[in-house]
Amino acid sequence: MLAIVVGTQEPGTPGGGGLALLATKALVAELDGRQVVDQAVVLVADGEIEAVGPRSELEIPEGYVVRDLGPYWIMPGLVDLHTHVSGSGINDTVYQINSGLRVAPTTQPGNPNLERALAAGVTTVLYIPGSGSNMGGQGILMKTGFKEYERALVRDPGSLKIAQGDNPTRWGYGMGRLLMNHHLRKVIEQGLAYARAWDAFEAGTGQEPERELRLDIFRDLAAHRTQVSTHTQYFQLVMMSILMLARDYELDVYIDHGSFDSYLNTDIALENNVAAILGPREVMWPNPPRYRTDGQVHGSAWGFQQQGHTMIGFNTDAPVVPLEELPLQAAMGTRYGMDNTTMQAVRGLTIVPATVAGIDHRVGSLERGKDADLVVLSGDPADPRTSIEQVYLEGESVYDTAQDRRRW
Predict the structure, then answer these.
(1) Range 326-330, long-range pairs (CB < 8 A, 24+ positions)
(2) Which of 26, 90, 133, 349 is in the most buried spot, having the most CB atoms within 10 Å?
(3) Is 408 domain-assigned?
(4) Total structural domains in the chain?
């Protein structure tokens, strides 16, 4: 059944009237609340989700355009918090500490990598510097399906990228981990002092500080307006990342890789409210016998989950793993032991990374008032046999296989 279109724009978008999408199943993925609605209707108006509920309970307002999706499911757009393919990239290896370096000027919205990602249901990404230096610089959060920078931008700065481990040790004269930690502590203490000085000035209790572009990011970090995304993988590196960044300096930080034996830090991750966003390695290989409990090869998601963590997500580190294979990262997590009986894999692709990045007020679940970033698909996104049929961004249809099925 179809209703008359109100306005001149596409239904669901600003000025385009309302849109009702009927689906066999809606993966709602609330952080604390509903997870699944069967025989669902999703109401969209002005680019936002207006309501989600069973067809038997939720009335479709008069004048809304109704699109029956038949046997297909609907879910929130997928979120990847570790990509390098949203632009031309930057050289972050001139210095070890590059807190003022920004990827924003290199962004190329709508490039082919993002177009393929969109066809896989990935609608929001964190585009960040590389891991060749200890502090690579500032990333941005952006939508994949818009070609204009202003429309694509979700937040700048999206994070401050810190890399712990082997990559920065290859820089210049060679950096040991002790010296890397020293450099990080020095600049973080400078930055937090700079943020306090600006707070005092704005409160009328201090003089105006001299502007230092390299330290501006710490005003956002100190105010918890952005996070540290930390390239950290082995046990010792993950432990130090948590203890230094989260415990000692009280920054919002998340594990960004979490490979091998890193899950043995789950207790201190929980104590310090640090989530585990895992990838591109999803399997703990090589897997020494001392980490095995049943003779099986396990995944990192299994390890964190077994130790009691619930805020577990996935990333690709694209192009290490192509951005369009983000759903496969979740499939690998479940294949190698992650319990997915209550939609943990779906949550790890949606509401968990959205919450960790501080953008869950806009994306990550099918809730009233959030951006209508919607994925229409044939089944569980953690099942590699599932196909993506349609994608909406803020109520606008940006990908439809009926017109153009992208393959890779």
Answers:
(1) 326/78, 326/80, 326/117, 326/120, 326/121, 326/122, 327/78, 327/120, 327/121, 327/381, 327/382, 327/384, 327/386, 328/384, 329/278, 329/279, 329/280, 329/282, 330/381, 330/382
(2) 349
(3) no
(4) 2
Q: Which region, left, alpha or beta, applies to residue 110 given φ > 0 means left and ψ of -120 to 50 means alpha? A: left
Give the distance from CA 289 to its chain's centroid: 33
Residues 94 and 73: their CA atoms lie apart, in Å, by 47
Q: What's the pLDDT score for residue 164? A: 85
- The C-alpha atoms of residue 351 and residue 370 are separated, in whole angstroms, by 12
Q: Tell me, what's the pLDDT at 295?
A: 64
Can you give the pLDDT at residue 34? Answer: 95
Residue ranges in the chain whose pLDDT is less than 50: 1-7, 289
Q: At residue 400, what are phi and psi to the nearest 5 degrees?
A: -145, 120
Is 115 contained in some domain?
yes
Identify the domain containing residue 382 by its residue range. 19-76+371-400
Q: What is the pLDDT of residues 323-351, one digit of tens each?
A: 999 999 999 999 999 999 999 999 999 99
Residues 72 and 86 both lie in one domain = no
Q: Which two tokens stand for residue 222?
A: 């100190």
Tokens of 364: 């990550």
pLDDT tens digits, 131-181: 888 899 999 999 999 999 999 999 999 999 999 877 777 766 666 776 788
Distance from chain centroid for Cα 336? 22
- Cα–Cα distances in angstroms (integers) from residue 115 to residues 119, 143, 308, 321, in the given order: 7, 11, 36, 16
Same domain, 285 and 381: no
Half-sphere exposure (Cβ direction) of 224: Cα atoms closer than 13 Å: 8
What percentage of the chain reaches a pLDDT higher than 90? 82
Alpha-carbon torsion (251, 254, 258, 262), positive or negative: positive
- Name which of 139, 144, 164, 141 is nearest 153 in CA terms: 141
Q: Is the pTM of this model over 0.90?
A: yes
